[in-house]
Amino acid sequence: MSPQDEQQSTQFWHKHSIDAVCHMAMGDENWAAWLATRCREQGIPFLFVSTAMVFDSEIDGPYGIFQERNAKEAYGQYKIQCEDAIWKANPDAMIARIGWQIHDETTGNNMLAHLEQQHLDQGVINASEAWFPATSHMMIRPLRFCS
């Protein structure tokens, strides 16, 4: 099923008994808003997994929930677009921004890019004590924390 096919998505939605949605996948902001709208209409919880990359990494975290989302990279900007579309469609939606700290000069803070580059360069993926073993989670609701 393609999330871009609204008829198929609607049929799937009505065929199943859905109690809550946790959107952890990719897809454009229209898909995210579609899911958030269905949840609002049915009065069920909606959680979107976003990223700390909505913040420009030139300033190290920790980031606060009131901090301006200022991503310069495409992925962070994409997540901002999804967050905004979700909040517009469903004011009760929750956003969980997750992130990790493994920044290096060649791959930035993208864990998969870092591991792929390490595999290309060395033929293996090594664990490192230089990584910051951190994952942060920010749960936010727009009406309380965003203008």
From TrEMBL:
It comes from Vibrio variabilis. Gene3D superfamilies: NAD(P)-binding Rossmann-like Domain. Coiled coil: none annotated. This is dTDP-4-dehydrorhamnose reductase. Residues 33-117 form the RmlD-like substrate binding domain.
